[in-house]
Amino acid sequence: MTAEQIPGAAAASVPGAASAPGAAAASVPGAAPAAAQRVGEAPLLRIDGLSVDFHTDDGVVHAVTDVSLEVVAGEIVAIVGESGSGKTVTAMSVLRLLPKAAEVSADAIAFRGTDLRTLSGSELRKVRGGPVGMIFQDPMTALNPVMTIGAQVAEAVVLHQARSDKKAAWQRAVELLRLVGVPDPAERVKQYPHEFSGGMRQRAMIAMAIANDPDLIIADEPTTALDVTIQAQVLALLKKAQAETGAATILITHDLGIVAELADRVVVMYAGRVVETAGVGELFATPRHPYTKGLLASLPRMDVDVDQLDPIPGNPPNMADPPAGCAFHPRCPLARDKCLTDRPPLLAIGAGRTSACHFSEELA
Q: Taking the alpha carbons of 166, 168, 171, 172 in that order, is the dihedral positive or negative?
């Protein structure tokens, strides 16, 4: 199936093409007002004060520290940042999918008003793959190599729909693969993951995630390791999946082109902390944290001729030994003495906007 055959694919750009700050804001008309309208709505998912530590031979790695965020029904919230910023750990904490070595603490991880931390293992399994669907970063390792694709999709249906027998679940698996654009689904359901291409495996993962009409989809780097043509198709498919289910979506990515294409609101993470939140249009037009500004400046722009890109200098910190004060100060062009000693709190800077920078007003 080509991109043109997927509903909505014509509107999907190749990731990266929308990365220009000016172009991105223009490509998502109404994004900022939509984000503003959501302020005050009851959240579908609420995370308060989440911290995650890993005990390693090199010491305690502070993977996530004091992260709070909310997602309301129907919106797409992108969590962005460099590798190691805590994006995936935050998402995995929601469904308790972290390894046993992880030390997790939070004031609340509430889905539809129920704190998921209080659920038993059997109760939580009813949430995973049911009202909360998960699209993992690497479908080759997430899929069971010794089960057919159809058996795995059908299993997700049987586990969450008590009235569904195996025959009905198998037919549902065929319908889902057809929905996500897998050609000849009646035959492909009989195949194993190694017989699917990377793009087809990702389609199968999306089919499993939406099998039970979830209220929330968590998509962890859904286009990683795919070529740009397949990326565009998968992005269009995610749009279609959300339209079919009406689900809210947490989109984890480091690609700001994807953010511009899909997101309503953006959460920027650095060194395990949230450093900025904003509607997507506002974020691209007027970033209010030096790290966000650096991410945007390091991307190619379609509206400006440049001889070379302007990357963020240095490297992300070692989270087993993070710097004092603001974790970004060793790489920040605005850094001053205060930044070396005082960690900036995440403060509201407008309706639906926050920033953790002592000098965010200078970026206004």
A: negative
